[in-house]
Amino acid sequence: MKSVHFLAFAVVAILSLLIGYYVGTNAKGGSMNDIVAAVESGMSSNTSAAMKNEGASDGKVLATVNGAEITDADVTALYETLPAQYRQAPKEFVEQQLLDQLVSMAVIGQAAQKENFGEKAEFQERLNTVRDQLLQEYYLKEKIDEMVTDEVIRAEYDKFAAEFKPDDEVQARHILLKTEQEANDIIKLLDEGGDFVELAKEYSTGPSGPNGGDLGYFTKDRMVPEFATAAFDLPAGEHTKMPVKTKFGYHVIKVEDKRQTQPPAFEEKQEEIRGQKTNSMVTTMIDELKAAASIILLTPKEDEKMEEKSETEEKSGSEGADKKD
């Protein structure tokens, strides 16, 4: 894999220059090691595609290496494994460089086959490890696809929506001021017909000031108690007649609307549910497989360890006493 890693680094170096030129800046978004790892993974997965036998091609043939075809589909497959920042440029822009790398991979692979590197014990050991990993991944994928279906996700969402407990929430604005007197002055202006939004933009010291003091919708537990109590006690459309003091300063609050929370839409929730069901299913499946298997952990029990330690200490103490005598 060292040769593949070297080739991956070459791909990164070349594409960094090309795509930096294409977008007018250097490619960013990850460390060189991370990018090399991602490219290496893609190159490894496409090595066999680059060394296909003649007559087994898929798509337009772009090159042959000792009779083995490299096709447009092979280049596309390698391009799609690149990190996102290296796919800023279209495939056509880096196609020649990717083809060159596939040719390099093909000649190395063919040389390794010619010298029977595939028969070496170290290679076979690694191949078996990779095979086991792929087999495990394939098994889990098939079981997940079989058990975590769209129907299961929909049923879980329907259950969630049915059990959802709505909570009261308000939409409010506020004007945050440093002193009580300033807050009273704002309340007086509001009582005289002043526009809350404009006053917030002009006088509020809070981050929501430029937005007219808008805090959006919130439930009672999301605000400090003094603020929340005042806001939820106000009828919609009215502002506080007294300043509300909190650790942030003095607030003048206006409630725009009141409503109850609604469960998130299915489209917003489905991926979270899918992840939860997948994790639960995998955990249950592994537990069941373990329960059905004969598993022997060849490690000493803690009490046996303690006995061995005690015997060692007693022996050491006895030898020390003998030396004194």
UniProtKB/TrEMBL annotation:
Molecular function via GO: peptidyl-prolyl cis-trans isomerase activity
Keywords noted in UniProt: Isomerase, Rotamase
Superkingdom of origin: Bacteria
InterPro entries: PPIase_dom_sf, PPIase_PpiC, PrsA_foldase, Trigger_fact/SurA_dom_sf
Alphabetized Pfam families for the sequence: Rotamase_3
SUPFAM superfamilies linked: FKBP-like, Triger factor/SurA peptide-binding domain-like
Gene3D superfamilies linked to this entry: 1.10.8.1040, 3.10.50.40
Region listing for Disordered, in residue ranges: 300-325
PpiC domain: residues covered: 167-257
Catalytic activity: [protein]-peptidylproline (omega=180) = [protein]-peptidylproline (omega=0)
EC number(s) recorded for this UniProt protein: 5.2.1.8
Family label: Belongs to the PpiC/parvulin rotamase family.
Protein name, per record: Parvulin-like PPIase
